[in-house]
């Protein structure tokens, strides 16, 4: 891979025109334009369905831009009728057989273009930034980017009419067979605990790497395996095409290799059948006052800004009254459950950073057990939704994520999302009884769940439970939480809302514009939500079961369009948040904000371009040169994103990695996921490069050095007691051993680069380090059933009103 090409967004030598978030009305004209002057001839489809005013701006109207949903305009009746007739003609087999080849090609191009337009990919902008970026270690070489219009491959530029990228199914990419599974996940307790893992999870990528290693070993030994131009079926929604694709998949499995490995063999998550609840825990017990204060402070400082499911001023006030009330047992059980989950998450983080005030190694399990003991399940819990229940279940899900139990986290979040939807949190609240602050609190709860849903979807590879097309709740307002409880805060929220809807006075617009562009936690959260929305669209377009019915050519165009959309997201970031500028590992300079956004961006880039990181040329007969070039560019984007993510980590200068720095500045709640994502991509590139004898890398040894760096960090985290990192290290070592299966592969450089990490890991294997590992606790059956119970609001006395309004 050439290091001159990069997956990073562009900055022109550090000078970038910042495209900040702007009010959706023009300050110069909003006050003077009359209603008739602002009236438009035709609204977009989204605004029509919601029956709201549309600005008519193209390619994206103001409302759709604010809601981050696809914007499309209905065709004129004449054009729409013409396209319908052409598509009907295209689908008639008897007509298709008598058409000349070049006419068939034009009709196929029309079908792809119409589908593409329906999915609103044409609404993206048409320029790509030049690739000049800076990382923490060095400045990458400059390389001109290819214009979006040039990367958008069309059939008339493919040359030979026998080229098949427009006809072959999109499952020729690396995520092959996304519409089926060959594994029974209900066969035993272990497989149930791991569950289904989708193709866009790094765990599935690791399984594919093992298959590549096995194929490479057989090739070196002269054994013919799964290789060559094997059929993948045609791209169509018809029953015949679907049957042909299934037959092609059976043929590939029959003629190629068949592996009996299970996905759980490659999973590093800690999900297992054992319960996490402890026995003999007093549910109403409270630790001495100093420790609860430290745990709440730890949570608010290191979790809340990135997962604002609680309202900080409101919760802090309630906590103060709870501690000093003298009768804390009279507080509602559901609120005490929330408090214990805050304790559990804060306790887990305190052990990661080795805080001097931390409690016992298992105290987070004590708080978790206590929270679930406060949650008796009964008919009312199933029948009724409640805002605090949503918060509790969301916090339980986040806690499970932080300790590596992603399947538990996924299941709990699904319940939280259903409860939230039952309360209508996914829709724009217009009830007159709700104040602006109450509406804002509900919006923050919903978007917190949305962010966690996106993250779990990325980690597990499972489909999303939230369909953004059914959601209309606006983004969180860029208003500080402290203002939500005040009358002035309500007025500020109302002004900001009116400004977004185009009804604000022009002299106030500049002040409200400054709110949108302020560098504060809520705007940082909004940035991550906006990228999550784009990434969810990537999941749907490239990793859903419907992917197999589209042509690889269409998948290429979607990848190109989404690359443009992700880069456009970067260009809208404040300069303070642009992580491609030189990072300072010290305090200040928004290091934490930039590091977290960097991990999110490069993770999205890897997911987006991963389908091209394989030998597609072996799967498509007579693939056009331009199509091959585009696949290679996208594969390079995927690998360079992994390398750029590695560059976010300090090099260490020969010292052991500072894991506390990473926990304090990075996404500590899912950091192992991001590191394993990059590690797997780089190892895949290493395997493909070596096995296929292709000199794709301009700087030999760079990939193995990056692999070694990530492995060093994982081992350092494991040596400090991170159980998820330890499992990831063990899984990686097994993966590396796969390169020793045959003599024709030289992996000495790889093992040399990972040796330092192995030394770090071995030095940490002592009784003290092992004491920090995640305990596996078993209980009697009477208590195991409590783990799935949801919290029920109780009214034990009237000492505290600890409910969200």
Automatic annotation (TrEMBL):
| Bias-annotated ranges (Polar residues) | 1-11
Q: Where is the composition biased (Low complexity)?
A: 121-136
Signal sequence interval, chain numbering: none
Q: Which GO terms describe its molecular function?
A: DNA binding; DNA-binding transcription factor activity, RNA polymerase II-specific; zinc ion binding
Q: Where along the sequence do coiled-coil regions lie?
A: none
The answer, when asked if Zinc is one of the entry's keywords, is no
Q: Name one GO biological process term.
A: DNA-templated transcription
Keyword annotations from UniProtKB, A to Z = Metal-binding, Nucleus
Name-wise, this protein is Zn(2)-C6 fungal-type domain-containing protein
